[in-house]
Please model this.
Amino acid sequence: MLVGSVCVSKSSSWGGEEQWAQRARLAVQRLPVQLTVKLSLAESVPYLESPLSPLEFHREWVCPNRPCIIRNAFDHWPALKKWTLPYLREVMGSKAVSVAVTPNGYADAVYQDRFVMPEERHIPFSSFLDIVEKKVTLPGVFYVQKQCSNLIEEFPELLGDVEPDIPWMSETLGKKPDAVNFWLGESGAVTSLHKDHYENLYCVISGEKHFLLHPPSDRPFIPYEFYLPATYHISENGSFQVVDKEAVDKVPWIPVDPLNPDLKRYPEYAQAKPLHCIVKAGEMLYLPSLWFHHVQQSHGCIAVNYWYDMEYDLKYSYYQLLDSLSEAVKLV
Model:
């Protein structure tokens, strides 16, 4: 078996089963280092002062699967000047919207031995803003984070202040985005470490987002485990309970919190090489497909992102191979 530039063969010259297993583990663990050098991954996320042409952006960033922060990419959007909390309150009023509520800010994350999703409430947008502006205090952390194109489905009143797609990215990829999402929440809201099968353009309108990123080549150091899915529910006394979902399969998820990793339980994570970046108001993060990301935000941060489906090409096949090898090594 060829792993990177190391041939792994279970021949008699390799010794016993344990020696073969150890060499296989080392081969897979060396692979991210080799890829980091060969892929010329930077130690920080580079900045572009303006968008490139579709051809240049595809050649320099999409094809090599490298992230960047783009300035001056949506200066013409009315949202940059208009989207204050008072403006949103005036436009949206008391219309009911979907809000994720958790006791600790972690939605869609591992808690104890469960993969726990937030309690989803449909509440008047004005009531949600009362919580964000601290006019009202309720248990939990509140976050408008429903995906599946919630900007279009739940906030159509705001569509005229942004664009339905990013024209140069649509030309770069030859397609329109699958989803356009609106994000607004409290500073305690955290997006746990995960990856998506999308080319993601993340546009911060106000405030700032803090991203921790891992390239796909870090997969051997990022553990996955299977968890029973559950949902938070708030009881009559205001405390949160974890309620199991009925008759569903276990969910594979990353148990590591990169802000406080349990290296005794997951020592391999110490070898991962995270990138940290802050995306400020008026900046756009290009987050390539399959990059792992963990996200925090300033209080009341407002953002819109565009998900373009990735190409399921040779890069995807190579990632699937790396993913399979990473899991297989645990079994030998």
